[in-house]
Write a structure and sequence with these properties.
- The protein is α/β, with parallel strands linked by helices.
- It folds into 2 domains: about 10-30 and about 325-429, Alpha-Beta Complex (Aspartate Aminotransferase, domain 1); about 60-320, Aspartate Aminotransferase, domain 2, CATH 3.40.640.10.
- The protein contains 14 helices and 17 strands.
- It has helices at about 10-20, 55-70, 75, 85-95, 110-120, 140-150, 155-160, 175-185, 205-215, 235, 310-325, 325-345, 375-385, 410-429; strands at about 30, 35, 40, 40, 50, 105, 130-135, 160, 185-195, 220, 240-245, 260, 350-355, 365-370, 390, 395, 400.
- The strands form 5 sheets. A 7-stranded mixed beta sheet has the order 6-12-11-10-9-7-8, with helices on both faces. Strands 13-14-17-16 form a 4-stranded antiparallel beta sheet. Strands 1-5 form a two-stranded antiparallel ribbon.
- Helix 4 (about 85-95) crosses helix 11 (about 310-325) and helix 12 runs parallel beside helix 14.
- The two termini are about 35 Å apart.
Length: about 425
């Protein structure tokens, strides 16, 4: 556990921490929304990351290349359009702990998961269940239920949900292990999050994959809240596939292009898939042959040529990750989130409770918080915070999600959150 003896609920202390932060210059690379003549305290990068200052120029460059070159931009743009996916591949691979051949930027998150399930959810009459968690993000539940129905099975029987068994609504490894021991022989696919959207719990992907594989199940992960947040090691975890969006911690813009991971052991496997010509081998793609010759690795799941105006912001954002280094970001993140948790526990314990696990390796940046007095008080606090320029987000029925993101948030931001909450409490005492 982290030592909290040096934490201090004091503005001068917070400012000193921020001044000594080796990553402090990164904050200046982002456009922080204004509030009442100053800057908003933006603690909602888990929902939509802030805009990097560099994004505007990379988009203008692409528009200029299109104007200047027309179709020739495919080969002669400053960042040629045909191989543009390769401009972001290595940066993404580094962030999610993968080999370059294992990742691709394409489509949107749920589209990618559906495309991957075409290959990795291969139900049989004896084994056709999908294991998810009880409070899965609606999109993941819809994805799993609709895939089950598409294959002619019934989600009422075949969609299995692991119930939370820990105090804050989180899941123990024992609960997952028990579900797999009990139902493993009829489960085709285990589909869990890297970080749970509602509770902020981070899962042990390697341990879950091992349990799934031991039962003969495929293991895949929705890493929407994990990519760019926790220390993902997708290759080492051994999972079969994963996908993520890029608009949260990866700061690539609203509805940004998503990512997908397919483990290297499947790189040349003849898996069934929904095919499109951009998934063909680059060497032969333009020979327009009738037969599909899959590109090795994750690129073989591409359908269409890359959307350049969607990829450009991701490229700009990945340059900042390159500069910061995922390891240094994660170290700062652990300390920032521990500080916020310490402040809540020491200053607001009678008012707020934290649902997110306390162990640093069981959570990312986000803390999920409930107001002890109930939903109406929670809504009142949330509205008060927003009116005072401290932005988190609200998830029904009664959860506030607060994420001090190491790219641009500060110790002072954490302190401001707690000071503003205390001001609300004084009004409502």
């Amino acid at each position: 556990m982290m030592h909290h003896d040096d934490f201090c609920a004091d503005p001068a202390w917070a400012r000193a921490q921020d001044a000594a932060d080796p990553l402090r210059a990164l904050r200046g690379e982002f456009l922080i929304p204004p509030h009442a003549g100053g800057e908003q305290t933006y603690l909602v990068g888990n929902s939509l990351g802030l805009e990097p200052r560099g994004v505007r120029q990379v988009l203008i460059d692409e528009l200029d290349d299109w104007a200047r070159l027309g179709v020739e931009g495919h080969l002669h743009a400053r960042h040629p359009w045909l191989p543009y996916q390769r401009e972001v591949r290595d940066g993404l691979a580094e962030i999610v702990g993968a080999e370059p051949v294992e990742v691709v930027a394409m489509n949107s998150l749920t589209t990618n998961l559906h495309l991957l399930l075409v290959s990795f959810y291969r139900p049989t009459p004896a084994r056709h269940a999908i294991l998810i968690e009880r409070h899965a993000f609606p999109s993941d539940r819809d994805l799993a239920a609709s895939q089950i129905r598409f294959h002619g099975f019934d989600p009422a029987q075949a969609l299995l949900e692991v119930d939370p068994d820990e105090a804050g609504g989180t899941l123990s490894m024992a609960a997952i292990e028990h579900a797999l021991a009990e139902h493993g022989q009829r489960i085709a696919l285990v589909l869990l999050p890297g970080v749970q959207y509602l509770t902020g719990q981070a899962f042990d992907l390697a341990a879950i994959t091992e349990l799934a594989h031991a039962q003969g199940c495929v293991a895949g992960f929705d890493c929407a809240h994990a990519a760019g947040n926790i220390d993902l090691r997708l290759h080492a975890a051994g999972c079969d596939f994963a996908a993520w969006c890029s608009y949260k911690y990866l700061n690539a813009g609203p509805g940004a292009i998503a990512g997908a991971f397919v483990h290297a052991r499947h790189a040349r496997a003849r898996l069934p898939r929904f095919e499109g010509w951009w998934g063909r081998n680059q060497a032969t793609r333009f020979q327009m042959r009738p037969e599909f010759d899959a590109a090795p690795g994750a690129e073989g799941w591409q359908l269409s040529n890359p959307p350049i105006l969607a990829l450009a912001p991701l490229r700009a954002s990945l340059e900042l990750f390159q500069r910061a280094g995922m390891q240094r970001l994660r170290e700062k993140s652990k300390r920032l989130t521990a500080y916020l948790a310490w402040l809540i526990e020491t200053q607001l314990a009678d008012t707020l409770e934290i649902m997110t696990p306390a162990a640093p390796d069981r959570r990312g940046a986000q803390l999920s918080i409930r107001v002890r007095a109930g939903r109406d008080a929670g809504q009142s606090l949330f509205d008060y915070m927003t009116a005072h320029g401290v932005l988190g987000d609200w998830r029904e029925p009664d959860v506030m999600r607060i994420a001090p993101t190491p790219m641009y948030n500060t110790f002072a931001d954490c302190l401001r959150y707690v000071e503003t909450a205390k001001a609300w409490r004084r009004q409502h005492a």
